[in-house]
Amino acid sequence: MTDLWWKSAVVYQIYPRSFADADGDGMGDLRGIIAHLDHLAELGVDVIWLSPIYPSPQDDNGYDISDYQDIEPVFGTLEIFDELLAGVHARGMKLVMDLVVNHSSDEHPWFVESRSSKDNPKRDWYWWQPAREGLEPGTPGAEPTNWGSVFGGSAWELDEKTGEYYLHLFSKKQPDLNWENPEVREAVYAMMNWWLDRGIDGFRMDVINMISKVLPLPDGRVVAGSSYGDGSAGFINGPRLHEFLQEMHAKVFAGRDAKLTVGEMPGVTVDEAILFTDPARHEVDMVFQFDHVWADRGADPWLLMPLQLTNLKAIFNRWQAGLAEVGWNSLYWNNHDQPRAVSRYGDDSPDHRVASAKMLGTVLHLHRGTPYVYQGEELGMTNFPFRTIDDFRDIEALGQYAQATGQEGRSPEEVLTVLRARGRDNARTPMQWDTSEHAGFTTGTPWLAVNPNYPEINAEAARADPDSVFHYYRKLIELRHTEPTVVDGDFTMVLPNHEQLYAFTRRLGDTELLVIGNFSGSAVKAELDDDWSGAELLLTNLATAPQDLTLEPWQAVIYRRV
Ligand code: TEU
């Protein structure tokens, strides 16, 4: 047994807009989630993390919040939220909310006030700056720094009313909050306490390693082929980040029962993560790092790089080793920002989809850390067959496409090739529940097209088939709950230089587990120094056990010996 409950927990992420629509408007909602809670209870997950459900103009699908203490009417009401929370708790699960406080919506009353005049009391709640010295506001290069926004274009928007620019690392409808201002921080902590008092069990913190900025805001490194500088050194892991997280902990979490806190931190290093997740420092319980989902990304963002398995293993090994003594890992292949893992690191063709989805699940869930399952991953849902840019809805895809094919002169086909493989809308197509029209997601018109493969890939079929990805994930989750070695065992990578096999052991006391995943479409024999003959085969994803450690295409195995 471990002291902190989230160490043995599995988290399931819901993207409410795409999960289940109860009222037929084409968008998922809270009643839709309530209707499917038994699906999650049957899967056996411990925690549900909800992507943002607060009032929002939906410029970035809810990551642009205009009221932190209410529910977006399209999704429901606070009363329905309380019903959902009760339904989650009644099934023995917990509920974690998304905390998006690096930025708000430009329609949040705080920003509406802030932009109203230079001497408004909330002016300093956001990052306002005049044009670069000697340049007229609005002229080329007059932005206060050369930073580009994640979604394309400059990270600065000129506000005509006062002639000053405001900072937005994401869309111009997502102005960055100024965490230097103590009133901002107090307002955020009060809001967090309000939700915790309502009964929620923790927060997933959106881009929380961007809240502290380097002062004065510095120009970024010039990037060849890009119209903007890379400002990340000025806002990733800024000088006051640890201080802010410790203050948040003291003012929000101290004195409460243990909650789950996970900080999303693009660009975080292992050394920093040790500090963020050291329980003695009281910052966060775990972080989402990005190294393994950037493993197939090269220096040129518009070039598809094939995955090199040795590289992927080196990344995980570094994280497992780095947080072995102090701190804790989060484990994920998928979320609402990533393409579907089975299409990316597995093989989503009819012959190998089920096996490779299960293999990926095996490898991930047997690492040390808290696994996250993203809606549809438990069905082996795949990427969507996008054709033209008109098929995409994501502000990131549209913004980056405009910048790349516009001032940067890339060909549309070059950019589309990468968006089809990596675009975030791959994860956001509606959840596939059954074989009825629109996969049972809605009786109306879905906001984003349903993947045409839903007659084959859907929850109803998966629950009815004992060999489905769903039932296999159920077993993986159950194994974490019943075998302490999965939670607490130490981790040793085996065969680090093998290009097809991902192999490692876990050990706790006298119990040892051997996990091997075949990341290829050919049969491969694992040549181990150690003799594992006679070990018990706990789980494999194919009908037959391997002979002499020869794994069939995309096969995964877990052996145990005592
Ligand atoms: O994502 C942060 C982030 O870094 C993303 O930009 C991500 O790396 C990229 O989209 C991958 O293609 C968080 C949320 O998860 C994302 O949905 C939001 O759009 C973003 O913050 C702004 O809130």
UniProtKB/TrEMBL annotation:
Any GO molecular function: alpha-amylase activity
Transcription in keyword set: no
BP terms from Gene Ontology: oligosaccharide catabolic process
Pfam families: Alpha-amylase, SusG_C
Enzyme Commission number(s): 3.2.1.10
Ranges for domain Glycosyl hydrolase family 13 catalytic: 13-428
SUPFAM superfamilies per UniProt: (Trans)glycosidases (SSF51445), Glycosyl hydrolase domain (SSF51011)
Similarity remark: Belongs to the glycosyl hydrolase 13 family.
Enzyme class: hydrolase
Gene3D superfamilies associated with the record: Glycosidases (3.20.20.80), Golgi alpha-mannosidase II (2.60.40.1180), Oligo-1,6-glucosidase, Domain 2 (3.90.400.10)
Protein name: Oligo-1,6-glucosidase
UniProt keyword terms in alphabetical order: Glycosidase, Hydrolase
Record-linked CDD domains: AmyAc_SI_OligoGlu_DGase
InterPro entries given in the database record: GH, GH13_cat_dom, Glyco_hydro_b, O16G_dom_2, SusG-like_C
The keyword Protease is assigned to this record: no
